[in-house]
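Researcher: We're reviewing a set of sequences before deciding which ones to prioritize for further study. For each one, I'd like a predicted 3D structure that I can look through quickly. This is RING-type domain-containing protein. If possible, include the structure in token form so it fits the rest of the review sheet.
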Amino acid sequence: MKLNQLDQLARHYPDLKIESRNCRIDGIGDEYTVLDGSIPATFKGVNYNFATKILLPYAFPQEPPRVKAAPTEQMRVRSSEYVSETGKITIPYLQSWTISSSLVELCNDLSALFSHFPPLAMAHSSPKTASAISKLDYVPASSARTREAFLDFVSQNIDLVKFELECGICKLFYNREKRKRTVISICGHQICHECAQKLPKKLCPFCSQEFRQQHLVVTF
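Model: Here's the predicted structure for RING-type domain-containing protein, in token form for your review sheet.
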């Protein structure tokens, strides 16, 4: 059954490959088969691939997998209701895992989550951004224990990603060309580089803080 699940996963999510077999996490505990790769997700029409590790315990599929976000050096984990600060991902499908559950359905749910709330962000983001995100209200865990409630949760919390991915003025995604993410270092607010250059006055559009050209710090 384990080999059958891996075969199905390879057809639907070919980027997830076996990194190692019979390994121990931190040198202790149960033995795991580690799947390493990425989960594709589409956010507002843009395709992303989020680095992910899926750990299959020796007793899989009787026991559920473990899932972790796997940031590169340029990325960081973006914690949420379903993603811990260490990158551990817990969703209702894992909590209700049975022997008939499948890795493909698990990855489908992960893709749904990532499409609305990416688990990774650029490593360099402003303190103001982190503070604003931490103050946002989350749906209590007790109200999102079913798969349906989980999918409803991620669709309702799309605003959580706007601080990280969108310019607050033009509402377009940051990119590595004209719309590089730019932090106004004197106040911590961020906009894209193109909008920063078009401001009629050197005033932050969000708090009216005066700034100079040297206060514009490109972080992406």
